[in-house]
């Protein structure tokens, strides 16, 4: 993550960061609750448009409020209403454990927002030609479809997926400017081929509701033509008052 923060200061990194900041500004504005945490990219105010009373920046290093490992978050279970993980899964060796921790700390119906580099894009194609020890090509590049499957296994239901950065990842601004039309047309013509994806998921908790028995269905119905005997009365059952019922005569 420190190497990622350094790369974000480059022109290409600023290009990515500007689009992610615009995404988070819109995505977090309508998420309500009490506690929100941003893990990673501590220099970026990704929660600035959110209105929760308690907001925190966490990370492994840097100017953060809480220093911790994303695979072992120091928050109580079911205590956070919103958790942001910008490119955290891209640069961890334990992405499954990070997702388990995210599911643990979120309240039911809590929101998780993840960004990552998309292997099914021009960025993923460029990664095959770049040295893997250079940022950002050393990232995991987890496919969004696979990440959604991981989330669903943990009860995190993907609610929205957006793609950003459709232009080729040129380092020079002049070259990116020539391909700027792809940023404008990408969402329409090749919506799943953005170099960066952003997934928003909701924690679902399957509840159990007890159903009371319908005792009226279990009570035996009275016999046709015979009135029910009052409780506590002994003797023969009274005949029905239905005039069509046959009369009961005493035999001699």
Automatic annotation (TrEMBL):
<dbReference type="GO" id="GO:0008757">
    <property type="term" value="F:S-adenosylmethionine-dependent methyltransferase activity"/>
</dbReference>
<feature type="region of interest" description="Disordered">
    <location>
        <begin position="229"/>
        <end position="252"/>
    </location>
</feature>
<dbReference type="GO" id="GO:0032259">
    <property type="term" value="P:methylation"/>
</dbReference>
<keyword id="KW-0489">Methyltransferase</keyword>
<keyword id="KW-0808">Transferase</keyword>
<dbReference type="InterPro" id="IPR029063">
    <property type="entry name" value="SAM-dependent_MTases_sf"/>
</dbReference>
<protein>
    <submittedName>
        <fullName>Methyltransferase family protein</fullName>
    </submittedName>
</protein>
<dbReference type="Pfam" id="PF08241">
    <property type="entry name" value="Methyltransf_11"/>
</dbReference>
<dbReference type="InterPro" id="IPR013216">
    <property type="entry name" value="Methyltransf_11"/>
</dbReference>
<feature type="domain" description="Methyltransferase type 11">
    <location>
        <begin position="66"/>
        <end position="113"/>
    </location>
</feature>
